[in-house]
Amino acid sequence: MAVNLRSAAERTAPAPAGPLPAPISRIADRLRRRRTALLLLAPSLVLLVAVFAFAMESLVEYSLQQYKDGAVDTSSSLATWTKVLGSSYYWSVIWQTILIGLLVTAVTAVVGYLTALALHHVKRTVWRNAGFAMVFSSLVFSGIASVYAWQLLLGQEGFLNSALGLVGIGPVHLLYERTAVVIALVHTLLPLMVLPISSTFRQIDGTLAEAADDFGASRWRTFRTITLPLSAPGLIAGCQLTFALTISSFTAPSLLGGGRVAMLSTTIYALVGTTDFPAASVCALLLLVLALLSTGLFVVIQRRFAEADQGGVTVSPSPPRGIRGLGVWLVALYAFQLLPAAIVVISSLSSVSYGQWPPPGFSTRWYTNLFHQDGVAHAFVSSLWIGVVVGVLAVLLGSAGAVALVRYRFRGSGAVQSALFSPAVVPKIAFGFAVFMLLARLGLSSGRWAVILAHTAATVPFVIVLLSAALVRADRTLDYAAIDLGARPFTAFLRSTLPQIAPAMLIGGVFAFLVSFNELDLSIFLLSTDQQTLPVWMYSYLNNYQDPTPAALATLMTALSVVVVGLGALALRLVQRRRRAAL
């Protein structure tokens, strides 16, 4: 009987759970990956919606209001749009914005292409790397400090007129003219033109030029038929970046234009000063539309050269050949890039309070004057604190977003990626003003927390790009091996993938810190007089005084940026050395 009872129990017992059918297993895995991706993307998406999307929506709402009789009429209408688009003054501002954008882009394209070509043909690697360092030095130099340097260079008694006076020429009136704005922007944006062009030069197959030589083609014909078409994608990408950043620039036209060079960015600032927020909102949206149209146009042009894309570095890249005359060009270009910083340092030690060149004597009085200025110490602490917080947040959010987009791709991930990159397309002056209007709409006071959120939203897209490239190159088989040995996926990521992408994380953090530390356009609407950062403090000082105190501040800001970059480079070498030792 016992045997029969046991047999009955065995017959009624549930069968042991086996593996799920293959289709159900795939669906479960897909849902699990999508859930993980959304959890990783959640912080960035929340920041995007809370800061960027709502700010843009507030901008649209305020543009439908009307400013009259010293007050804002909140009833929705197109009256402000009609006033702005029906005014010849605003159309002249729009045309001036486009014209300066085209001029800066054209000049930077020519100068940048020749510079990238010359650096590509420098035979010694040490000299080539040193050349790139000098070209990219303007990125370390604070934006407002660079503009101030050109004030000193182009002033009535500045370096340029003093040098021309030695040969009996001048004075030349360049300051507070369109030319001064163009020169300063070319100096600042040149590295962003050189970088993509240099990248395409390294992707050109060297055997093509060798074949052209074998068939008797001259160097000019080889350049015209091979080098130029194949490097066109990099040139177009550089032009796209340069034009977008030029039309949204604020500091250069504001300080070097002297009120004569009115662009949409300076017009927005002036309208905010008169509390005409609806007209300022319309101008900000027009600037955004202009940026989007130019981006779309460059994308169309880029597609026409898509067949020139070789998809990566070839096995036989074009070797440095050396070209006569380009050495002289590089020396002149190095002087152009380094001279503003040198002028600022020398002027900070001038013994007089006006911009005489050369200085009649030297003194440290302006450093003493700087340290006794009200608010400068607090501005330094604010800039440092905001920069560190933004750097940490940008790395954390950017790392999570990059892992989600690279390791856990899902349906709709392309749209999410485009949405995350949208703050990088919007002009910074428009974005900063939009955040200001959002806070006013919510009845919240602005301050350092608002600046941190705005700076983080603006820098996260660039960190995602850096870390996505690092993740693509990372060896994922190490993760799989760790999981096979019993490690949890998160532990496997920390032990294998994280060391591989640590250098990119470090670079992203340093980049985010420097952008935040030197940022003016995004911050100028969000800080009160008692919460200023160093760039905002310096901008206010330059609008009220003309002594060399800003030169002392610019020197110290540049020195700090150099120290940060140096420490970052040292930390990067230590991380790479430790990784090689672990392998």
Give an overview of the whole structure.
The chain has 583 residues and is mainly alpha-helical. 74% of the residues lie in helices and 1% in strands. The chain has 24 helices and two strands. It has a two-stranded antiparallel ribbon with strand order 1-2. Mean pLDDT is 81; it is low at 5-13 and 307-316.
Order of helices and strands: HHEEHHHHHHHHHHHHHHHHHHHHHH
Mean pLDDT: 81
Total helical segments: 24
Overall shape: it is: globular
Q: What is the helical fraction, as a range of percent?
A: over 70%
Beta-strand content bin: under 5%
Distance between the termini: 66 Å
The profile of the biggest β sheet is:
2 strands, antiparallel
Total number of β-strand segments? 2
Q: How are the strands ordered across the major sheet?
A: 1-2
- What structural category arises from helix and sheet content? mainly alpha
Rg over CA atoms, rounded to whole Å, is 28 Å
Oligomer: single chain
Q: Please mark out the parts with pLDDT under 50 across 5 or more consecutive residues, or reply none.
A: 5-13, 307-316
